[in-house]
Structures are given as C-alpha cells and as structure tokens.
Amino acid sequence: MKEIVQALRDGGGVERGPRADQNLEFLMLIGSVLPELQIYRTGKIQTSPGVEEIEGSPTEYYRTVGAMIALLAAYATCNPSCDGDTFGLDAVSKGDRGPMSIDKVPGKFINMGTKPDAYKEFCMEFGGQWTEEDWWAMLVFLAVRDVGKSDAFRNAVNATLPVAKRTDDHDRALARALTDMDLKRKFLPSVVKLSRRRQDMLAAGFMTNFQLPQLGQGEIAVINLRGLLDMPKDQLRDGTLSNYMYHSIFDIAGATSNEKFMYPIAMVPVYLGFTAAMKTLLENLGESTKHDEREVYFNFLLTGFKKAYPEFEEQVFRPLCESRIFRDEVGLVVLRILALTRNTYKNPQKVLDIMSENRFDVLTRELAGNPNPPGPQIMLYYAPDMLRMGLGTDLDDASGENMKHALEAMDDLYRLSRDQLRDVENGDYQYQLNVQPAVTVIKNAGKEWTGGVQLKSICNGAVIESNDMMTEGILKLK
Predict the structure, then answer these.
(1) Which of 15, 114, 120, 137 is least surrounded by Cβ atoms within 10 Å, i.e. has the fewest?
(2) Pair (313, 262) in one structural domain
(3) DSSP per residue, 219-233
(4) Would you say 369 and 294 are in contact if contact means Cβ atoms under 8 Å apart?
(5) How far is residue 296's CA from residue 302's CA, in Å, rounded to a whole number?
(6) Rounded mean pLDDT of 145-156?
C-alpha cells in the first residue's frame, strides 16, 4: 500500500499532476498488482442500466481508479508514518474541480476540505485499527467491484449457469463469480490471493445486491433489502456488511474521475451522511426482533423524515403509524416520495393527501413493494434527480398540484414498466428502468422548466427499451 501511495505522490499530487498522463507510473503499478483492472478496458462496458459505452471506453476504468485513490487517501490519513501530512485530505479535496473546488461557494458547502477534522475522524473510524492486510483487501474489493459491467465477464459467468439463472445484473454476476473457484482463478486472481475468509466476505456482500445510497434516497425497490435480512447475524458484526456499505462511499467519491482529472472528491453529505446512515441501518438489522423488508425501509427513512418535518411527523404522521397497514403501504410510500426529493419538498401533508387517493393505487403498490408482484419489483434508476429536479422551483407547492402532476408522471413510468414485464413471472429481483433521459431534458430546459406538469408531459407517450433478459431498460422520450 505504501509503495502505491508513493507512486501516486510521485505523479505530482492533485494540484500539480491530476491527469492520467502524469501518473503513468502509478497506473502501471496498480495494473500490475491488480490485473482485474484490465477488464474495464476490454470490450463493451455497461455504465448504467440500458447504457453501454463504446468498445474500449475508459469511463469505468477511471471511475474505479478514482474510487481506489479515495481509499488510498484514507490510508495515507490513517497511516502513522504520514502523521501531520495532508496528502490524503488534499487528494480528495484540492485541485481545480470547477464549482466543486474548495475555493468555490458550492465547494465550501460540500467539499470535505473545509472539514479536515471531520475527514480525519471518518478515516480513523473506517480504518484506524486496520492492518496492511485489511487495507489491501479493501483495495482489491474496490478494484473488482464493477467488473460485472463488462459484457465479456457477464457472458463468461452466464455460460456456467442454466438459462433460467442467467443475469445481466453486474452485482449478481460478480457474486456468482466470487463463489466459483474456476471463475475466480480466470478473472479475479487478486481475490484468489486473499484469505478464504476475506473471499467469503466479498461474496456475501455482493450477494445482497444492495446499495446504501439508493436506499437513503428512497430509490431502490423494497425487495432489494431481502439480501440484507438473509445475512447471518455474525456478518453484521464482523465487517462483512459495513465494508460492503463503505465501498459505496468510495464508489461515489470516484464517480466523476476521468482521464483528465483522476482524483476523487470527498463530499460532506456522502462521507458523513452515509456513514451515519450506515450505522443506523446496521443497528436496525442487528436487533433481536426479526423485521421484514418494508419495516427496515420504513424505519431507515423515518430518521431523515423526522429531522426534515418534525411537527408534521409528531402531529399527523406518527398517530397514523399506529396502524401497521398504514406503515406498510401509504406510510412507506410517503417516506419514499419525500426521500426522492432529498426531503426538500415543503408540503408533506399534500403528499399524504395525494397518496391516500385511490387514483394512485398502482403507484402505491409499486412503491410499497407488493409482496406478490406479477413479476419483478421495479426501480426507477435516477428517480431522485428526476423528481427533485422535475418539481422545479415550486417546492412550497401550497396547492399540491405540482407534486400531483409529478407523481402522475411517475405513475405512468411504473405502468409502462409493468407492461414491459407482463410476460415475466420471476418476482425475486428488481427491474431497473433508467430515467436519466428525463433528467437530461429537465437540465437542458434550465430556467424554462415549468415543474410537475412538464414532467408529466414529457413522460406521456414515452416508451421503454429493455434488454433481452428483462432485467433493465432505458426510457425513450417522444
């Protein structure tokens, strides 16, 4: 680890050497010790549901490198030999990052460079007691975390499975490879070199098919929590699940990394917010009382809801929650809708009123996670951006009309998705519909965007293009 950090330093650091061509020694070194990285640079790679990069695209490679640098920054911060050295903090906060730079107004709000003590506390809490072996295992984790996005890798994995069990889900494909020694030897040699216990921990994490950020935003389908609830209690305590969740934080940090700026960014809401959320979830899962997916989802979102809407929660929402039926259905749906707006929408009463109407029974069933759906449960990928931005500037929305139109748009998308899945009987996974095209329209409209009514308009008449395995699709607007 120290040799790798030194190679990164020798490239000049984030301020003097942020580009890939300035860090060839570092890139050659990590490529030689982690050969799995070559998978991201070979053939076609999926970057999100329904989106496949052109062959040889470096997008996922540099995102992975960025995530690894985020971990190396934490290592440098925790390493006693680097005491007083700011390389770790600088790596994730300094440099010309445009509006996210530390010297820009938005950067002052979200860039961890303005909170050096909080950053060090995060790093120490994460890996302060780790051995070199622990750090290396986590670096391997980040290096292989998205190899399932490679078409060639998934095809090789699927070739070992009966047709009914084949998948286009990259996490499921990786989980399968992590439980098959032949596949590991062929594609994941760095994993094979880890201890058997660490290999099992990696496999257990990916078998959950769970993403913490998407839970916090109310984005993932309810069924996505089933893998967590099936985990043995000892894996909730031995670092198996916490390390899997931490990898999401480093993943987000490296999401914007590219050939011209390899370095990641540590964002306050991610590094601090998701860490706190992770602790809450682990405590919930560790309780002796057995919970189902709806309860875990509801309890997790309730924490942020209380902070955002304290009076409404106490006076209106809490009394209704005495009914288990309300909590499992309308209550959970209300929490998810508001979480999709990052709890920035100002009129929670209207959301409750709207979702209590029978006209939105389809949307209620989909968001509440119908335990017996006629096929897979549905996730709208990028729904937080679509809804929050789709509402436009009227977040006070005194009449509730803005939200009502926006939810009509979501209802249309769920109906479209369910129609796509009408011949699919398997209901043990989530189908992901990528709604990024709608987000792009909203961004391009800028100040001309009119809110929920326009979101409903652009979704009306849209179609969906799904993959052959009917595990994901992408929205096509008219």
Answers:
(1) 15
(2) no
(3) -S-GGGGHHHHTS-T
(4) yes
(5) 10
(6) 92
- 62/468 Cα distance (integer angstroms): 28
**Helical (H) or strand (E) element with 464:** strand 463-466
Considering only 187-196, 200-209, 333-342, 345-354, which range has the smallest mean pLDDT?
200-209
Q: The tokens of 165 are what? A: 């069990």
* Three-state DSSP state, 103: coil
Handedness of CA 88, 91, 92, 93 (dihedral sign): positive
One domain, residues 334 and 467: yes
Give the list of residues 6+ apart from residue 234 with CB closer than 8 angstroms, or none.
Answer: none
Cβ-in-10-Å burial (0-12, 13-18, 19+) of 138 comes to buried
The two beta strands, 51-52 and 46-48, are antiparallel
pLDDT at 52: 62
Domain-embedded: residue 313: yes
**pTM assigned to the model:** 0.88
- Residue 326 and residue 318 in contact, taking contact as beta carbons nearer than 8 Å: no
pLDDT tens figures, 247-269: 999 999 999 999 999 999 999 88
Q: 300 and 184: one domain? A: no
Cβ atoms of 8 and 162 closer than 8 Å: no
- Tokens at 146, concatenated: 């998205």
Based on the domain organization, do 159 and 300 belong to the same domain? no
Supply φ then ψ for residue 111, to 5 degrees. Answer: -80, 125
Q: What is the per-residue pLDDT for 359?
A: 84
Return the structure tokens found at 410: 């979501």
